[in-house]
Write a structure and sequence with these properties.
Layout lengths: L1 H6 L2 H5 L7 H22 L2 H24 L4 H27 L5 H8 L10 H20 L2 H5 L16
């Protein structure tokens, strides 16, 4: 899945401080799923709705497999996967509201609470770089061909390089 490949880019973790943990990786995948789902919503077609549903189904299947690989017993898998699916929808609502907010810093605050939620004091430069990346991704996905998106090949921007301070 193209969004999982993008979410696993080492620079998110090494250069921008996204926690390289199970939670951090989940949040990065959920962020990229949101970006694609948000773009599909704007496509406004039956095929886009089918593609969005397929993406959600694939996300849930991947979370189910991951939870099982972590050794969670059958009794706990459904509960954990349900919580992860709810987390995806919750984050999507938060990121959508933040991107559409007139409030300066709304996206950065949403990132601090979610993507960096397990970090006590996230680096401001990392948060700013991720906010800039998200805005670039929204623009790149909006300008991309709908056919590529519907085929499951979203075009994400390059992961931003870390800022170098003298």
């Amino acid at each position: 899945m193209a969004l999982s490949t993008q979410a696993r880019q080492p620079a998110f973790y090494a250069a921008h401080g996204v926690p390289d943990t199970l939670d951090g990786r989940f949040d990065c995948v959920a962020l990229h799923a949101f970006l694609v789902l948000d773009r599909l919503k704007r496509e406004d077609s039956a095929q886009a709705a089918e593609t969005a549903q397929h993406l959600v189904d694939t996300f849930v299947e991947d979370m189910d497999r991951t939870v099982r690989e972590l050794g969670v017993g059958d009794m706990g898998v459904a509960r954990r996967v349900k919580a992860m699916a709810q987390a995806l929808y919750g984050r999507a609502a938060i990121y959508s509201a933040a991107l559409n907010s007139a409030e300066p810093g709304a996206l950065e605050e949403a990132l601090r609470r979610n993507l960096y939620g397990t970090v006590e004091s996230p680096d401001s430069a990392g948060v700013a770089a991720m906010a800039a990346y998200i805005r670039q991704a929204v623009a790149a996905l909006a300008s991309g061909e709908g056919a590529a998106l519907l085929a499951g090949e979203p075009k994400f921007p390059a992961v931003p390089a870390p800022e170098v301070t003298p």
